[in-house]
Amino acid sequence: MTLKVYLSGEIHTDWRERITEGAQALDVSFNSPVTDHAASDDCGVAILGAEPNKFWHDRKGAQLNAIRTRKGIEDADVVVVRFGEKYKQWNAAFDAGYAAALGKSLIILHGAEHQHALKEVDAAALAVAETPEQVVQMLDYVLTGRLPG
Amino acid sequence: MTLKVYLSGEIHTDWRERITEGAQALDVSFNSPVTDHAASDDCGVAILGAEPNKFWHDRKGAQLNAIRTRKGIEDADVVVVRFGEKYKQWNAAFDAGYAAALGKSLIILHGAEHQHALKEVDAAALAVAETPEQVVQMLDYVLTGRLPG
Amino acid sequence: MTLKVYLSGEIHTDWRERITEGAQALDVSFNSPVTDHAASDDCGVAILGAEPNKFWHDRKGAQLNAIRTRKGIEDADVVVVRFGEKYKQWNAAFDAGYAAALGKSLIILHGAEHQHALKEVDAAALAVAETPEQVVQMLDYVLTGRLPG
Amino acid sequence: MTLKVYLSGEIHTDWRERITEGAQALDVSFNSPVTDHAASDDCGVAILGAEPNKFWHDRKGAQLNAIRTRKGIEDADVVVVRFGEKYKQWNAAFDAGYAAALGKSLIILHGAEHQHALKEVDAAALAVAETPEQVVQMLDYVLTGRLPG
Amino acid sequence: MTLKVYLSGEIHTDWRERITEGAQALDVSFNSPVTDHAASDDCGVAILGAEPNKFWHDRKGAQLNAIRTRKGIEDADVVVVRFGEKYKQWNAAFDAGYAAALGKSLIILHGAEHQHALKEVDAAALAVAETPEQVVQMLDYVLTGRLPG
Amino acid sequence: MTLKVYLSGEIHTDWRERITEGAQALDVSFNSPVTDHAASDDCGVAILGAEPNKFWHDRKGAQLNAIRTRKGIEDADVVVVRFGEKYKQWNAAFDAGYAAALGKSLIILHGAEHQHALKEVDAAALAVAETPEQVVQMLDYVLTGRLPG
Amino acid sequence: MTLKVYLSGEIHTDWRERITEGAQALDVSFNSPVTDHAASDDCGVAILGAEPNKFWHDRKGAQLNAIRTRKGIEDADVVVVRFGEKYKQWNAAFDAGYAAALGKSLIILHGAEHQHALKEVDAAALAVAETPEQVVQMLDYVLTGRLPG
Amino acid sequence: MTLKVYLSGEIHTDWRERITEGAQALDVSFNSPVTDHAASDDCGVAILGAEPNKFWHDRKGAQLNAIRTRKGIEDADVVVVRFGEKYKQWNAAFDAGYAAALGKSLIILHGAEHQHALKEVDAAALAVAETPEQVVQMLDYVLTGRLPG
């Protein structure tokens, strides 16, 4: 059994690396969005031409990124969504809702301070974790039945 | 043609009333979440018993609210999601993602200040409006072909 | 909003009556299996001819009952499954799994003594209740936003 | 043709080994839940933190196990569900219902004493067997057309 | 609960009338193909223009009839397929396969002499009856829980 | 049986009126896009604000019209698509492809001069007609079994 | 592009061999039912125990064969169904209907004498052929664009 | 991540070669229709026998080509549809509609002169490009996060 895992959400800390490195002995294939913030913001106009209006500048980029995001989520068995300290992160919550409607197994990763604000998102998840290491331990258990410690 | 419209998101201003009143001559049926903030937060423990841990207190409520929310979205032709001035509003973005994955026609309603933060959500929508009156005008046009003015 | 509710499971106590009577002022339409135990067991052979082998006797009945059960579950918004004191009740757990796979909102109703044995079933539910009155209160809240007391 | 087979249900006898060993010359890939009873019960709290209330202790574990179980069933061509001598085994019946709703080919494995209690589950199956060896013979026939003896 | 029933297959005896008359006190809505043999054969060319080649004459008619047949089957809760004494009746078996793949509850109606030839079709059904009266009794039981006699 | 029919395509002749009037004695409910060419082109900017770039002007309108079009097609049993004498009419062919992928019964309506250019579209249809009166005759036959003349 | 092709229907002539041999240079993977008539009839009772009643004898076999048949059809891109000279062949027509409802590309293979009786089945197909060699030529064309001669 | 891309539409210029060559270092697998115009027009009658009526000549060919086209679109992650200078190209718009209804990521490729006529098609797309090189750049970005220049 290979587990396909999509890592959605926050792009300013090293949580993806901690999961992919922690899980490198496991039969998991990872996917994620483009995590280069500038490239992700400007990809649309860089390829398809400039837009004077920021709204359409953003639209072109967001739709191009959606090609990757949708495939990542639709192909996944498990979607991990991380909410960080800063920004609105509405795209993370949008991905969680998208994955939930497709019946994907959802793991939500966030600090205790967001517990109340994320209650509807957490309620759709099969697990709510605080650290990337817990995600690795869960992937390990799901694939091998092994528990930490 | 009756249009079934679900009104998701922000619960602290009168935007739902402005839409339902503005559209009362149209063949539209509206649904929405429970908009009483306190009831929505505490419904789970009020019916199913208290929880000392706030996380499970929230879980019980969020899952009970999900019975209404999912039916509302799944039955809808059009899902309108409003983002307001305050709070994280991750449940609104979650609903938008959920609706998008089900192929619902999405209308996003927000002020100009949220344009960049909502770019992925807006990119999944068929329309992005700033005022409830624009939503009414769109419902009117979709149902009757009539334009304002 | 009319809520379509299917009442599955235990047929030896009055829990269905307590729910349907308690909810009679609400916009709910209820469905349930045939609850006459003898008719339910023998319906197949009574109509389609006797079977000397009890296995096929049971098969004929169970498949005829499945016409009603599947329609009931597939048409429902909410599936309530009650586990009682006695018997194996594997058909109740089967219905719960069937409803879960179809994405129905599940409410499980059982006494505290079955908590551990039902943990996988409960984990697929949006609510776990102990009394029929709690189910009525949840239907009331989902439809009207009203809380008890 | 590779047949993907999920082996659900009873975890206290060697029926899984008898099937996987019996079928080792066939083009079958097997999956199953975690069958270490203690790990399966405690996996949630072992990774995600202790819960004083047994209900939530069980919930955390059951939801984590669901990541593996759902993938196993959704990926399968054939779901074999074994009911043993002891316990309520509602999770086995739940898996059978879940698999049935997804249109999987179901094989139910149980002793004659459970025939009446399992009639609704059996009625959704394409085969009802009493021994693991019969399951092996069926997989052999389905893949090669070969009959025993 | 209204049951939507589609009556497919043989068009040379009065079995449909016996069912619809027998069930007239029940909450059932019936649909069926056009049962006027000549109209059914020639409808395509009568409306869309003659075809010198019988193959395309038949094609035009069969595709026009398919508009009605597909809607009838797709809208149905229960599909009853009757096999009679004469002709190949491949369209009846085709309808049964079509309904089975859509997960409809299938009832097959035929005389004992076709038992072996129809074994694959019967095996996909929830009931196999010999007389229209048995079909009426099953509809009655499914809707009301009432058994004959 | 009520037949829901969506009338897509060409908006410069009276073909829709000829069908709806011809079918007024039948149990058919019709839907169609907004057929006021100017309103359809400008609806987006009229409600949501002007766009200096014609591409985004068109985008806003086309997406608003899509709310109506998608609902019309998704709700329909039968989608009739008319190709006229003039213009590219790519939206008509797009609607035909959209309806085909959803498994709708397609009727294509066009003059003989477009036969070769429309061969892929026609090949996905259950009927190809040249006049609105033929469409009326087909709806009449599908609903009542009656043939013209 | 690998094309997955299921070969359903008549089992008394060498048409499957003529197709698989003719297509051996092509990127096609073939599947088919068990074509040993005796094994196919008796597989159920040979493995799961004798039945005195021929109806249940047939049922056991037909349901066991369905495990293979359904997987074959569900995995296929193209389903070829051959109707021969003899027998009722209702299982072939059932497979065609099943495949049609799943949206598979259907090719029907039969002699001219069955043209009228198969008109509804042919009308659901993308091609109707008379010889296995035509099927090979079509697979060749679909995969490579090459035409015969 | 391998991206499966279907290249639909115009067959008279070298746009497919420019994309497949430009993307040859990327993890993309391409599919496309048969692009030999004469073979595509005559394949049906070349294999299945001549038709005196051009309508059925075209039908036979179009349905045979549909076996390839549907598989190509259904297997794809991304469907690129190119509209050229000449012809009606209704099959291209049909493919775009078909792909949109299946939820595929759509990229539309056309010159500025078709902007208004393609507005409904463009509005269903995640990107609208003018050159094959832009398509290559987008595939590169989606797979690697790399931007041109």
Please give the CATH architecture of one domain in chain A.
3-Layer(aba) Sandwich
Q: What structural category arises from helix and sheet content of chain A?
A: alpha/beta
Shape of chain A: globular
Q: How confident overall, as mean pLDDT of chain A? A: 97
Biggest chain pair contact, residues each? A-B, 39 and 39 residues
| Largest sheet properties of chain A | 5 strands, parallel
Low-confidence stretches of chain A: none
Compact overview of the structure:
The first copy, chain A, is built from six helices and five strands. Chain A is α/β, with parallel strands linked by helices. Chain A has a five-stranded parallel beta sheet, sandwiched between helices.
Would you mind describing this structure in some detail?
8 copies of one chain form a homooctamer. The first copy, chain A, is of the alpha/beta class and 149 residues long. Chain A has a domain at 3-34 and 74-144: Rossmann fold (3-Layer(aba) Sandwich). Helix content of chain A is 48%, strand content 16%. Chain A has helices at residues 15-22, 37-48, 54-75, 90-101, 119-123, 132-144, and strands at residues 3-9, 28-31, 78-82, 105-109, 127-129. In chain A, helix 1 runs parallel beside helix 6 (132-144) and helix 2 crosses helix 3 (54-75). The model of chain A has no long low-confidence stretch (mean pLDDT 97).
